[in-house]
Design goal:
The structure is a single chain. By secondary structure, the chain is mostly helical. It has a domain at about 10-55. The chain has two helices and no strands. The N and C termini lie close together (about 10 Å).
Length: about 70
């Protein structure tokens, strides 16, 4: 896991977290008031899941054959 991998995985995890936050905030405002603890917990779990998924490889840092550089 190089600095390049951490940077690519971090960017991907932040994007995933932001997408999840938008979805959760949108869904909770339709039904009730926004429960920020639920939003925060869901975002944290999505970021962790994204980082764990990135362990299998990131196209941003691969050699072009699907393997890590």
């Amino acid at each position: 896991m190089t600095n390049e991998w951490w940077k690519a995985a971090g960017v991907r995890a932040i994007k995933t977290g932001a997408q999840v936050a938008i979805g959760v905030i949108g869904a909770t405002t339709v039904f009730t008031e926004v429960d920020w603890r639920v939003v925060g917990g869901t975002v944290v779990l999505s970021v962790i899941t994204s980082l764990l998924t990135s362990l299998t490889g990131l196209p941003e840092v691969s050699k072009g054959d699907g393997s890590d550089a």
